[in-house]
Design a protein that fits this description.
The structure is a homodimer.
Chain A: H1 12-24, H2 36-42, H3 47-59, E1 63-66, E2 70-73, H4 87-93, E3 98-109, H5 112-117, E4 125-135, E5 138-148, H6 164-172, E6 178-187, H7 190-196, E7 203-212, E8 218-227, E9 233-238
Antiparallel strand pairs in A: 1-2, 3-4, 4-5, 5-8, 6-7, 7-8
Chain A binds a DNA duplex (30 and 30 nucleotides) through helix 3.
DNA sequence: TCTCATTCTTGGTCCGTACCAATATTCAGA
DNA sequence: TCTGAATATTGGTACGGACCAAGAATGAGA
């Protein structure tokens, strides 16, 4: 018996980060935070811990630092990088009620690109899952997911109308942590348009995603077709040094 | 006279990062790196410095760490987050030769959304720059950029067929560091299609970008219409903790 | 041979100190 | 009053030490 029981001890720098984020919210942009040495004294921690907390805030885009001058509240806390989320989480974030109609749920042989991207042999099988995802009752996107059957035995016995990621986590301990995405635009064909409830010839966003676990092992290959009139992708990018 | 003369002293952790990245390239995925204490001894630095270097590599997706086990080479070094780049840099990265046809370059009054997003008053003026960008001689996208005229006096006197970001940097000391982007799909109208050299009714990617400098002050508002048959957007996303 | 508790290894957190580099401030001199 | 050098402040880098927590390896016992 292996108890996970993650004690979830919260480190000091994380506690400090939250407190600072809370303080920041009632500060105007470009206003200076206390100096690092100040914060260390005030919160009874070392300067290293303060820097650790601030680094997280800088990464999140909440503050910016200027050497010799100080640390300041950033202009726009709104800016958030896209994170790897399930459709269910994504819709919740947009304030929409998610729904699902399962169109296909079966086991097939791995072939071609799918086989290659999931690093499977030609003998291996994959779970195929085609679902029409709804937002506030109306079609939002058409999702086709492939997963290595060996890693998710009995997946199709579970309820597939909810969050796939939730099932992967609770039933199999699989947590996708990173994903490569390719975003394209295309014009919908007749059948896809019909399923999505829009006229043929309408535009759509196609997102191809290959999600992997912490080890870098592929766990999910999904292609999603979003209605262009209902969906967009927002993210913040930064200039790369070097 | 204020000499910038950035001595560009390279910190130890940065030197170490480069050396490690070099070593990693000849290692297979999932192979372990030496332990942090090992690396510290071997390179005659403190463990803190080693961790600083490794953190950068983790952030770049080159390695991953497992507490209690070690640090390992990540599976796919290819995966790179999209970074804020100019069209010129973007095309260079894809191995294409960039070109430009300037369609409009003028000074107009700020109005509506542009005015609001660039945080300008209704009296202020903006530089408008509409350019057809080519890749290997063929149209790739249609770019419409707006910049606060006050921050870039005499911009239109410069050559606008090259990289705008390069001019901003060298002539005005402006370096956009972060940008919020919104990506949508749409069907091209007749005039845009004609400019891009594709049949009307074709799909396109529309990217709206608001770029800001380090202070969080907006410096550039651009809408770009990409040919869907020649362009896609690739990026890596990670699961957000908390 | 297998299981499970123990021990070891490894990354994660935290402290205190010291000095460097860029910016802001002060103040003497023109 | 203004200019420019000297000084103080602030974030950036670096060290060394200590202990914690999670995974890996070991070894005793069933």
């Amino acid at each position: 018996m292996r108890m996970v029981m993650t004690g979830h001890r919260v480190p000091k720098y994380e506690q400090l980060r939250r407190r600072l984020l809370h303080d920041i919210e009632r500060l105007a942009p470009h206003q200076p935070l206390p100096t690092e040495r100040d914060l260390a004294l005030r919160h009874r921690v070392s300067r290293a811990t303060v820097r650790h907390a601030l680094e997280a805030l800088v990464k999140a885009g909440a503050v910016y630092r200027v050497q010799g001058a100080g640390t300041f509240v950033a202009d726009q806390i709104i800016s958030k990088s896209v994170s790897l989320t399930s459709f269910t989480e994504d819709m919740a974030g947009r304030g929409l009620r998610p729904g699902t109609r399962v169109l296909v749920a079966d086991l097939i042989g791995a072939r071609g690109r799918i086989c290659q991207e999931l690093r499977l042999g030609s003998e291996d099988e994959v779970v195929r899952l085609v679902r029409l995802r709804l937002a506030d009752e109306a079609p939002m996107c058409l999702e086709t997911a492939y997963l290595p059957a060996a890693r998710v035995p009995g997946l199709l016995d579970h309820d597939m109308t909810g969050s796939l990621y939730s099932v992967l986590d609770t039933k199999y301990g699989i947590i996708p942590v990173v994903a490569d995405q390719v975003v394209e635009a295309l014009v919908l064909g007749d059948s896809d348009a019909a399923l999505l409830g829009v006229p043929p010839g309408t535009a759509a966003l196609r997102v191809r995603r290959l999600a992997t676990d912490q080890r870098g092992v592929p766990v999910e290959r999904t292609t999603t077709l979003y209605r262009a009139d209902r969906y967009d992708i927002r993210f913040t990018i930064a200039r790369q040094r070097c």
